[in-house]
Structure formats: C-alpha cells, structure tokens
Design brief:
With about 220 residues, the chain is of the alpha+beta class. The chain has 2 domains: about 5-95, Beta Barrel (Ribosomal Protein L25, Chain P), CATH 2.40.240; about 100-215, Beta Complex (RNA Polymerase Alpha Subunit, Chain A, domain 2), CATH 2.170.120.20. Helices cover about 20% and strands about 40% of the residues. The protein has helices at about 15-25, 45-55, 115, 200-215; strands spanning about 5-10, 25-35, 35-45, 60-65, 70-80, 85-95, 100-110, 120-125, 125-130, 140-145, 155, 165, 175-180. The longest helix is centred in the C-terminal third of the chain and has 18 residues, at about 200-215.
C-alpha cells in the first residue's frame, strides 16, 4: 500500500504564525524539486513521524497537497533536542524516471574475529552516497564484518553494490576497520642505589669559581 502524507499550504510566514502552527501539532515544511517550484507547507507531526519510521530517509511516498499527490522523499529535517520535536522538514519532489544521488545510512552486521581477539572496531563513515532511481534507493547499506580480522579493513570497493544502484564514494575509502587495543606505556625504571644529582650545588660551585677568578684578576 502506498503511503500518503497530507499537507496544507502555508501562506502566512510570520513568526507568530509558525509558533501557532507548531502549537497545533503541525510541522512547518517546504517541498521543492527540479520540476517543481518551492512551496511552503505544513504536515501533521504524528503523521510525519509515522511516515518517516515506515519509509526512512530514502523512501519514496506520496505527499498530498490540495488533493494533488506528488512523489517525494524526506530530504532533510531539523530536530530540536531540547524540546524533543521536529521543527522543520524539507521534502524533495523526485522524478521517478531520473537517477538521483542520496546519502544512505551504513549498518554494521555481525561480530568480527578481530574484536574477539581484543581489537577495536572503528566505523569511519556512517553514510555512503548512492546513485539510483528514486524507487530503487536502498534503506541502508549493510556491512558484514564476520570475516574481518585484526588490522583488517573494509573499503567501499569491497562492498557489493546492488544491481540497481552504484556508490559515488572513492573506492579506496575505508568504511570499517579493526585496530589493535592501545598499549599502555611502560613505567620508567627508577634506580634507587645511586644518589640523585644535585644540580643546584654544581651550578653554585661554578658561580663561586667564577667569582674567585674575577677577584684574582
């Protein structure tokens, strides 16, 4: 079943109106695309969160405005951590017949042998750029590390791209790696048999010798 998110057009852009929009349980938003002029809208907060959970960042769904439906994706959104709420959303009107680039989350699967040996798994990137038709963009890129040994790494070129999408990142870019645990520095050995060197006394003797030489002169 196709997901449909309803939206209403916003015409009043005063700050007081934006505040009222949020107080009514709606989120100010904007929708735009290559073949669509930017349009200010508002969507129901609960419906948006439900849609985002179901479709993800790269999912394509229908945005209904004044009875007309448009294929869109969630291009970006702003989240207020203090208020724990979404404060603004950018929707992108996708052309279903034209490939596009999108940042797709990276998900690490499995337990690496290198970690079992005491190594530390380092995830270098959390998103990878992918090019595909909008409806063929993956929800996430799964990286299996079940064969990753100590000092090993997985590069972009090691990932098998799907039949319908390709990676835009540098093939040599590191995605995940296993590094040895940090070695604790050795404590310096302290020799207790020898007496400590008295630097001040030596410098003092030098000064006295200089004074006596000056008096003899």
């Amino acid at each position: 079943m196709v997901t449909v998110l309803k939206a209403a057009v916003r015409e009043d852009f005063k700050k007081s109106r934006l505040t009222k929009t949020r107080q009514q349980g709606n989120i100010p938003a904007v929708v735009y695309g290559k073949k669509m002029e930017s349009k200010a809208i508002a969507v129901d907060e609960i419906d948006f969160i439900k849609t985002m959970r179901e479709e993800g960042k790269t999912g394509v769904f229908k945005l209904e405005i004044d009875g007309q439906q448009t294929d869109v994706m969630i291009y970006d959104y702003q989240f207020d951590t203090m208020k724990n709420e979404v404060v603004h959303v950018d929707f992108y009107a996708a052309d279903m017949n034209v490939e596009m680039d999108a940042d797709v989350p990276v998900h690490v699967d499995g337990e690496a042998p290198g970690v079992k040996e005491g190594g530390v798994l380092q995830q270098a990137v959390y998103e990878l750029s992918v090019r595909a038709l909008p409806q063929q963009l993956p929800d996430q890129i799964n990286v299996n590390v079940e064969e990753l040994e100590m000092n090993g790494s997985i590069l972009v070129k090691d990932l098998k791209s799907g039949a319908n999408y390709e990676f835009n990142n540098d093939p040599e870019e590191v995605v995940v790696s296993i590094t040895p645990p940090d070695e604790e520095p050795e404590e310096p050995e302290v020799e207790t048999d020898e007496e400590p060197e008295l630097v001040d006394e030596e410098s003092g003797d030098g000064e006295e010798q200089t004074d006596s030489e000056e008096s003899n002169e």
